[in-house]
Amino acid sequence: MSEGAQLTQGEAGHRYEVFHTDCPARAVVDHVTSRWGIWVLISLRSTDLRFYELRDGIQGISEKMLAQTLRAMVQDDLVWRKVEPTTPPQVTYGLTEFGQDLGAPLTDLFDRITQRLAAGGTSTTERPSATGQAVQPTTPVAQQLRHLDDGH
User: Fold this and answer.
1) 142 by DSSP, 3-state: which?
2) What is the pTM for the complete model shown?
3) How far, in Å, CA of 43 to CA of 124, rounded?
4) Strands 90-95 and 49-50
5) Which residue, 92, 108, 119, 141, has fewest beta-carbon neighbours within 10 Å?
6) What are the pLDDT digits (tens) for 88-105?
């Protein structure tokens, strides 16, 4: 096979060429690692949630971005969507088997980060203060991780 050629699903035992622009796996990776995709997977890792619960739980996400992220993840078969025929409709989301499979290493990554922050470990984003003491990172992500690690 020539260099840069796209592998097909039919070639058993081979992997997709994820660096190729039209690789189908590349779109899924983009959705999972997008700004909001990882937070959706982490939010749904242990329970199914309704749209408003996801919106309220993922601070900083707009309804439009949440809807777009969920739509892409449903199309990628990472998330399932169930609509209850009520007024207004109740929409619940959960992880598919594929979503659970991809979410497991992300959960492990999340747990490692929160354990490191809880232990007071030095991160690459910490900076020394004028007195030489390490200053905890104050980025929104670091604050969110600390908040979630506290069980809130």
Assistant:
1) helix
2) 0.65
3) 25
4) antiparallel
5) 119
6) 899 999 999 999 999 888
